[in-house]
From TrEMBL:
Keywords in alphabetical order: Metal-binding, Molybdenum, Oxidoreductase
Keyword Glycosyltransferase: no
Stored Gene3D superfamilies: 2.60.40.650, Oxidoreductase, molybdopterin-binding domain (3.90.420.10)
The UniProt record lists the keyword Methyltransferase: no
InterPro entries: Ig_E-set, MoCF_OxRdtse_dimer, Mopterin_OxRdtase_euk, OxRdtase_Mopterin-bd_dom, OxRdtase_Mopterin-bd_sf
Needed co-factor(s): Mo-molybdopterin
Organism: Ziziphus jujuba
Segments traversing the membrane: none
Domain Moybdenum cofactor oxidoreductase dimerisation: 274-370
Pfam families linked to this entry: Mo-co_dimer, Oxidored_molyb
Protein name: Sulfite oxidase isoform X3
Domain Oxidoreductase molybdopterin-binding: residue ranges: 53-249
Length: 371
């Protein structure tokens, strides 16, 4: 597209932080050490997990860049970055998580396909609007609410369909990937979610108070809080209002939940809906999977998170493999008590937890979250 291009090779990829654990070099997929996640409630940009499907797109002329909104709408149009920045800007803290987070741990039970993430394919961020493998982080994302953007083309707030039958909003990236046979990465969400201001879906151009960097979608990306990261499309090219779900690979042939009886020989992708909200979960980050510590008092720290804006009611820690449990302290901001579903809490963000436990010899420490 004019102003933003997808290179054919990786020679112009940006530099990355040296502490990242690289799971794939080309395309570049990496996560921070698990201990880095609990050093800060909001994940630093350089340590935020990197999830890519091809070479990182390049902006060659930001003045020519625009997003086309079309499909089952009466007033299709192109919006420039200036148009989007003129809309009200909001600040929202939200955790993003790759749907493949903890895949390394899953493979210990049964081999699964995909990038071998530990527990750090997750991160917490701040959105600005006017114990295993993890790939999740929290950040502050800045941009315009998608509900406000869609209102510009005549789709009212809280609309579940358009007059011409549109019920889903498809996001198409400049990014090209092999899973789409060289075509663009794409995903969709229901229109009712896109038009709900309380869902906080963004067209984001900032991350942690700074302009998005290339790895995280510069100049514009989608952020869908509480939903697996695969729906938060980066390097946005166009938005299509469509009648049915997006038919892209990552909506129809990946990120679906099947019972143990299904394998790659008998799978029928059409029998399951695409995964959207990520499940309640917790991970211990202060200890590795195999750690040698002296018996006695040991601090256990980590994160707990749930999709859909659901808060975390409790985090429990066990030092005997789940026979007995102690409740951990939960917090988001240091010095401020965390209360699930309270207005003072960030509903889209993870909760950090800590418990000091008595560790005997040769034991298994586990954590569980309840929402």
């Amino acid at each position: 597209m004019p102003g933003l291009t997808a290179p054919s090779d990786y020679s112009q990829d940006p530099p990355r932080h040296p502490c990242l654990r690289i799971n794939s070099k080309q395309p570049f997929n990496a996560e921070p050490p698990r201990s880095a996640l609990i050093n800060s409630y909001v994940t630093p940009v350089d340590l935020f997990y990197k999830r890519n499907h091809g070479p990182i797109p390049i902006v060659d002329d930001i003045e020519r860049y625009s997003v086309t909104i079309s499909g089952l709408v009466e007033d299709p149009r192109k919006l420039s970055m200036k148009d989007i920045r003129m809309l009200p800007k909001y600040d929202v803290t939200a955790t993003l998580q790759c749907a493949g987070n903890r895949r390394t741990a899953m493979s210990k039970t049964r081999k699964v396909k995909g990038v071998g993430w530990d527990v750090s394919a997750i991160g917490n961020g701040y959105m600005k609007l006017r114990k295993e493998g993890m790939e999740s982080c929290t950040a502050v994302w800045g941009g315009a609410k998608l509900a406000d953007v869609l209102a510009l083309i005549g789709i009212p707030k809280l609309a579940s369909s358009t007059k011409t039958g549109g019920r889903h909003v498809e996001f198409v990236s400049v990014d090209k990937c092999k899973e789409e046979n060289g075509g663009p990465y794409k995903a969709s969400i229901p229109l009712i979610q896109a038009t709900n201001p309380e869902a906080d879906v963004l067209l984001a151009y900032e991350m942690n108070g700074e302009t998005l960097n290339r790895d995280h979608g510069y100049p514009l990306r989608v952020v869908v809080p509480g939903v697996i990261g695969a729906r938060s499309v980066k390097w946005l090219d166009s938005i299509n209002i469509i009648a049915d779900e997006c038919q892209g690979f990552f909506m129809q042939k990946d990120y679906k939940m099947f019972p143990p009886s299904v394998d790659w020989d008998n799978i029928n992708w059409s029998t399951r809906r695409p995964q959207m909200d990520f499940p309640v979960q917790s991970a211990i980050c202060s200890l590795e999977d195999v750690n040698v510590v002296r018996p006695g008092k040991v601090p256990v720290r980590g994160y707990a998170v749930s999709g859909g804006g659901r808060g975390i009611e409790r985090v429990d820690v066990s030092v005997d493999g789940g026979k007995t449990w102690v409740e951990a302290t939960r917090y988001q901001k240091i010095g401020t008590p965390y209360i699930s579903d309270d207005a003072s809490s960030d509903k889209w963000a993870w909760v950090l937890f800590e418990a000091t436990v008595d560790v005997p010899n040769n034991t298994e420490i586990v954590a569980k979250a309840v929402c």
